[in-house]
Every structure is written in C-alpha cells, then in structure tokens.
Amino acid sequence: MNFEDLRHKHPNDIAEVITELSAKERVLAFLLLPGTLKAEVFTYFNHNIQEDILKEIGSRDTADMLENMAPDDRTEIFENFPDLLIKESINLLSDEEKSIALNLLGYPEKSIARIMTPYYIQAKKGWTIRQAMNNIKRYGKKAETLNHLYVIDKENKLIDDIRIGKLLMADEEQTIESLMDYQFVCLTTTMTREEAIEHFDKYDRAVMPVVSENGVLVGIVTFDDIFDEIERRDTEDIQKFGGLEALELSYTETPLMTLVRKRASVLLILFLGEMLTASAMGFFEGEIEQAVVLALFIPLIISSGGNSGSQAATLIVRAMAIKELGIKDWWYVMRKEVLSGLLLGLILGTVGYLRIILWQQAGFYDYGEYANLIGITIGLSLVGIVLWGTISGSMIPFLLRLLRLDPATSSAPFVATLVDVTGLVIYFSIAAAILTGTLL
C-alpha cells in the first residue's frame, strides 16, 4: 500500500481503507499519518478500533492526537471508552484541554452540552469593528465555524449574535453595539438533544450558541453535530417501528447474541399475540367446517387489514416526529382516516368481489351456486377490516403519546397483529350474517 497516496484522501475514506487492514498494519498506517490528520481520521473509526489503536500507540502520539481533536468529537469518543482508558487519555491532555474535556463530560449524558464545542468567536459590545476583526484573525483558525460573532457582556452572558457578513460590510470605526438588535436564539446546556434538533429545525440555523442556566455563553453546536443526532434518532425510530428494540451500536458492531435478544423479545410478544388468531379461528370452527371456501380468503382478509393499519401508523408517526401533528389533532386525523379507510376498503372490496365473480364465470374455480353471496361477503369484509385497520393504525400513536410513550413503538408488526385478530372476528361475523341459511 502507498501510504503517501492515502494522505490525500478524505479522512472518512482513509478510515475505511485503514479499517480493512490487519491489526498491525492498521496501527502502522495510522501512525504514518500527519498529527492533525490523525485526529480527523480517528473520529471516523468505530469505537472498537478507536480503543484498540489507543492501546497500541504511545502516550505521546495519543496526547498529540487528542489535543488536535475537536472537543465535541473527543467527548463523543470518551463516552464509549472504559473508565480507566478515559482517565488515562484525559491525563495526557494539556491543562486547558483537560479542563474543557472534564467540563463537557460533566453534563448529563443526553444533554446538548455533551456535543458542543467551546471554540467560537466572541466580542464585547463596546469594541470597534476593527477590534472584532483582529480578534477573528487571532482566534479564527481554532474556531469551529465563522458564521457568527457572539456578543457578551461583562459577566460573559450572551446578549446578541451578529453574522460575520454584516461585520464585513460595516465601517471599521463603528462599534459592535451599532450593529446589535439584541435578538438571538440559543440552546441551554441542560436542553436535551431532541429539543436542540427541534430548535435547529424551527430557526433554520447552521450553528447555535449554548448558554448556561444563567445565560453565560459556554459553547456552540453546529449542524453537522446535530445531523449525527438526527441520524441516530431516526435509526432508532425505524428500528422500533420495524418491530425490535433499538440497537445501541450499529448493526455491524452489535454482537450476535445481543442482536438475537433485541429481536427475540418483540418477536415473542408478537407470536403470543398471533396465538389469539388461532383462538379466533377456533371460535368460528363451525362456520369454517360448513363453508370451507371461507378459509381460502383468510390470508387475503387479514393481510389487507394489517397493510392498511401499517400504512396509517407510518404516516401518523412520521407526522408526529416532524411536529406536523400533536395530541390535539386526534379528531382531525380520525375523521380523515375514517374517510380514507372507507374509500380504500371500497376499492379493495370491489376488486375482491369482481375477482370471485370473474373466476367463477371463467371457470378458474367453482364457488358453487352462492358465488355472488361469497363475493359480497368478501367485499364487505374488506371494507370493514380495511376501515378498522386504518383507524387502529392512526389512533395507536396518539394513545401512546398520551401515555408519554414513544409513538414509534406502535410498530407495523404490532398494528398488523392487532388487526389480524380483530379482522378475523369482523370477517366471520359478516360471513355469518350474510351466509346463514345458505352455506351456513
């Protein structure tokens, strides 16, 4: 391998190449990278490789790498290390960087402060534009972003943020205060990452300042940090909605037995729920014996209800996730889904009825002299079951939100299981009402 060519790739591409190497080659390739590039590449490794590399390389190399790393990236890495390794790593930092690392690690685990960086550009309102620009030139290289200048008072409390572009257009002798409107948006250190995501979305910002409970400016959070959180959140929701417990690590990093455990618990619950389907069929055993033809359409009936319920649940959970719907909108959703369910049921019911009539006339299958009644039974059953599936799928997320649970847990498998059981009851009840005196 030509390690010289490797240096010119993007840090993420370099990390991918090094990951494919053997353990010894991996460490060698990593050590051959320049100091600043080491810090960037290191953040793209998975946690296991990060830990292995730190254990292999010398303390001096470790110190240089951690020193050059952005504080928010370094904190994220520390969160996944064993306590002893965290202690050893932090002790390798300079006093300034050690203080920053310890402060970041002192915040609640899910707080936005854990992913903020303390590197930003600030100024006092009495400064001239020239003073502010000189300050930018002095500290700008270390700052994570140069989008905004943050104005603080004598107590280091944030009082305004000014776009750098506005500074560039102003006269050098103007004061910072002449550009201020004292209007700004910010995050607080105790705010959860979920709340921070909502703020970024609401105010459409690429970067936001973070202040303490008393309004003291302590750091900033950039959109790339928030994007990582959005990805984690959406991954967790998708996994829950797919019918399994959310994974703490990525799929490739999750041990086999952990993966089995995460999936088995939900599968077992769904299996027990589906056992009720057998109970429901046992209850209507007499009807099935008298009209065996009814059994032919059971898969069609219950799958249509489950599919419509899963569709509705997916739409509502996503609308809730992006704050399009709240608990108070349940009646609006109910009315809309009732109409949707009826129309969808009529479409499927009509197709189901026509299928039976056409098959009978074409000679593909002989449903007997009561083919028309069987077609009507299937058609009406589909209307009722699709309607019920749509209502169930749309209302369960509201119920979970009311109970302060995650609506994502109203996964498609859970909705489908519920509709499978109740769908059979609807199907055989309609069949009993229409076919009694004929087939039954």
From TrEMBL:
Subcellular localization, as worded in the UniProt entry: Cell membrane; Membrane
Gene Ontology CC: one annotated term: plasma membrane
Spans through the membrane: 266-284, 290-317, 338-358, 370-400, 412-435
GO molecular function, one term: magnesium ion transmembrane transporter activity
InterPro entries attached to this UniProt entry: CBS_dom, CBS_dom_sf, Mg_transptr_MgtE_intracell_dom, MgtE_N_sf, MgtE_transporter, SLC41_membr_dom, SLC41_membr_dom_sf
Domain of life: Bacteria
SMART domains, per the entry: MgtE_N
Signal peptide bounds: none
PROSITE patterns: CBS
Family: Belongs to the SLC41A transporter family.
Assembly: Homodimer.
Function of the protein: Acts as a magnesium transporter.
Protein name, entry field: Magnesium transporter MgtE
Origin species: Pontibacter diazotrophicus
